[in-house]
Amino acid sequence: MRFFPYEEPYENQREAMDRIYNTLVRGQNVLFEGACGTGKTLSALVPALEVAREQDKTVVITTNVHQQMRQFVAEARAITREESIRAVVFKGKSSMCHIDVGYEECQTLRDNTRALVEAESDHAQLERRQRDLLAESQAGSESAADARAAVMDELENLEEQIEELGEANVCDHYRNNLLDTEATDEFFGWLFEDVRTPDEIYEYADERELCGYELLKEGLEGVDLVVCNYHHLLDPMIREQFFRWLGRDPDDVIAVFDEAHNVEDAARDHASRACSERTFDSALDELAETDDPRADDATNVLEAFRDALVGTYEDSFGFGQRESVGDNWEDVPISNEDRRDDLTLAFLQAYSGQGIEGDLEAARKLGQQLDEEYEEAYREGETATRTECQTLEAAAFVAAWMDEGTDQGLYPVVSVRRDAGTDEVYGRAELYSCLPRHVTGQLFEAVSGTVLMSATIQPFEVTEDVLGLEECVTMAYGLQFPEDRRRTYAVETPALFASARDDPEVQTEVEEAIYDAVRMTPGNTLAFFPNYGEAARYAERLESRTDATVYLDEPGVGAEELRQKFVANDRAVCCTSLWGTLAEGVSFDGDDAHTVLVVGVPYPHLDDRAEAVQEAYDVAFEGTDTGWRYAVEIPTVRKTRQALGRVIRSPEDVGVRALLDRRYSRRAKSDLGTYSVNGTFPHEEREELLDLDPEKLKFAMMNFYGDHDRYAGEPPAP
How far apart are CA 598 and CA 529, in angstroms? Predict the structure, then answer.
């Protein structure tokens, strides 16, 4: 309890802390589901800090949601008021660099700057030495005169070196880090007086012309707590460097993942790799400019792959399809059940040489040499930017495509998009990772222990399988707020299958239920739909009927800007997609919204990637229905549960949560069979779901809100 910053924990919070503490002491993993109000952050952070203090470890707490990052900072600051801890909030270099250069450029600048500062320091020491020797020689010492001559030779060499380094690319901010030790000491004193955000660090360092990112890296060693983004742990290369900056082996780290239902997709993204047509074009231009004899072999293999890529997506276009390609990447089907994918087959047919493996090796070695030359040119100041070797990148990708393309966990994809500037269509090849446990399993096995927490992480056994977790302790705590202040309805409107969405009768029934819910809500209503198209459809239908202000969330619209407009109103409905940014990580507290609707079962678009993930899960977990359940149904219900959690954020809140689709209903399970999703909800939430006929929704809501005196005056006439 020394790390608990408040007077008393919530109900069940002390029990959760005790269980998590005991699990982490044993070096095991925790899956922790807690609804809003259960105090998940402190339930995990407090025992993790206690174990870390006892066992000399560092706690790393990570999230991919900006609002949660701010919450972590607030909790860490509260803890420092009670118990001394050294806490750091860490972001990537791109958000903290004062001169906006890439990682490779930054590394070169650091090396050059350090070499220059060290050379100048050596020069200053030798200059003092030669002055002392000069005084001794003038006093008659012959040995001092000989020694001074040797020192003068060293000084001359150093001056030439300093002149060369002075012409090279250096970073003045990092130079000040190295030279102004008083300023850097002041920085670390300031840093650990409180829990500083990356923006605060950037501003502090910028005012003093220091490199805050490099200082922050130096300050990581020996800290008690680090708050960071997912990629610091999920990207294997970044993770290795990150742990090195911490001065910790993986076994000395306790990892806490917040919003852990997102880890699956995040890990999949980190494990996937792609290479665009533009990269191949640049590599071929690069090879055309070198007279190295290996360039012909490298060109032979990379040009064949590039031509196969272009030919594959061009052949896929039907009448008018090329003209309809937009600014976002769109997948082109290339997979085959009984043979390699279309791109690989086209590549093998287009290639004519002594051997793909040998040509790729030539390309790789030549690429490494060119990359070293680019590094040297940038280091010496011959170029203003550090050129990335496209030949090396393209060769590594083609090698991976040929070696790993048959791996069950990797799915070959071709995508196309239109360049908004040139209006040209171009493509990319991608090895899409279907099994995230290839990334997460290694991480969880390496660290001392983990806590994965979320309001929607059940079913636990599925999370364990998908992420490759072993030796897990599981715990779940539902809403701790008074049950009589909320109602959760499964409204038996027609099942909104994709095939039924354009049916006028279905639309009318769904519209009536939404209209009734909005009309009976004493305040604002959130309405989530399977996609933005459905949100727009019903927003338009509502505008002609309701007196509430209708807001439509659309792709590309700032979520926070829309949220502020919505909550500033006291009689509004916001229509959005369940797969948009408002469905999680955004709170609607108090009177911000009283009713939340989820219309339909918002299954994602089932494209070839989704099918590949299902097939990979079927094979990995040995079940014909496992892929559908693990990859589609459970993530969809988790999204639904996340949306329901946008309201009822405190014990004082009063609200209605309604699922509009009979597939959510308990009494429709026997009729719908496998189409029913009622059984996918955790038991406690199923018990709270009340089946309701659509025409009774308005009466149920009127009675509920009336019982809580939420109407100003008489309730609306039902």
Answer: 6
